[in-house]
Amino acid sequence: MKTYAGIDLHSSNSFIGVINQNDEKLHSRRHYNNLKEILKVLRKYKKSLQGVVVESTYNWYWLVDGLMEQEYKVHLANPTAIQQYKGLKNRDDKYDAFWLAHLLRLGILPQGYIYPKSLRPVRDLFRRRTLFVKQRTAQTLSLQSMIARNRGIEHSASVIVHLDDESYEEMFDCPNLVSTALHQIGTIRFLEKQIKEIEAEVETVVELDNAYRGLLTIPGIGKILAMTIMLEVGDIRRFEKVGNYSSYCRCVKAQSTSNGKKKSNNNRKNGNRYLSWAYVEAANHNKRSCPLARKFIERKTAEKNYTVAIKALANKLSKASYFIMRDQTIYDPSLLFG
Predict the structure, then answer these.
(1) Which Pfam families match (predicted)?
(2) For residue range 247-292, what is the model confidence (pLDDT) as tens digits?
């Protein structure tokens, strides 16, 4: 008789539920997050087990990898796409585990992508680069603001980074302001060093795949952004349609409307925040080098505002990227802005 397992994964423990093809419960118990213990539970059902469902939480790597190494068929459940019965008054980990197994038995389980284990550490390292870039930007803006407040002078980010310590000592007459400026510029320089070291390390490990080289033909996307997109996307074929990809990149509006009226905001955080950042960065660079993109930004800004305009351009670039990666072609601005 066929069996199905669902695992509701938490930080320190997991609830395992196993059912058969008649939806009868065969195992129902909470276990510590110990791979040997979980494998021992599933071993008695291995021959009949049609699949093991693991909820896609922040800590799924160890469990999914361990199960796959033991040749279990693992399904990574997408929790944001799973519909629960709204009339439930009592719902717990036990219910969630059996619900995952039940959805697998019915063949209607919304599944997430299991990113290849070999590339996962490189992707996570590159994600730290993105974090450091954001922190560097925050420190730079803070220092710019302090200079403007106390001196009435506006310096660009490039000027701030290249000023030496003596320049900051001469800029302020208060020792506390000098100390603040030196600490901030020190942090900016440190982050810049970390960013460059990560880029150099990743470039020695991963090369831009042929399917992604076409991204370099898009004005505003250089090697670093192209590698970010490649490492985050994995296999572009997992996105059936271009709309699925742009939604995953958080480039579309998350809201529900009825009769022309806004009813609610959908889950804005559903998708990949790193790809969202990458395409906004690409849009900001693209508008500087592409006349058609500049005109698009100006028109959208007049209609709405600059933030909406940049996001709209990011959406266009994400859709262009999808076809470039899927069809292995090059960028054609006339198709994007025609």
Answers:
(1) DEDD_Tnp_IS110 (PF01548), Transposase_20 (PF02371)
(2) 999 998 766 555 555 555 556 667 899 999 999 999 999 999 999 9
Q: Which CATH number fits domain 3-106: 3.30.300.30, 3.30.420.40, 2.40.50.140, 2.60.40.1180?
A: 3.30.420.40
Residue 166 amino acid letter:
E
Cα 246 off chain centre by: 12
Give CA angle at 140 (139, 141), nearest 5°. 95
Residue-wise pLDDT for 312-330, tens only, equals 999 999 999 999 999 999 9
Q: Which conformational region is residue 8 in: left (phi greater than 0), alpha (psi within -120 to 50 degrees), or beta?
A: beta
For residue 61, the tally of other CB atoms under 10 A from its CB is 14
Residue 265 sits at φ, ψ, to 5 deg, of -95, 130
DSSP count for the chain of H helices, then E strands: 13, 7
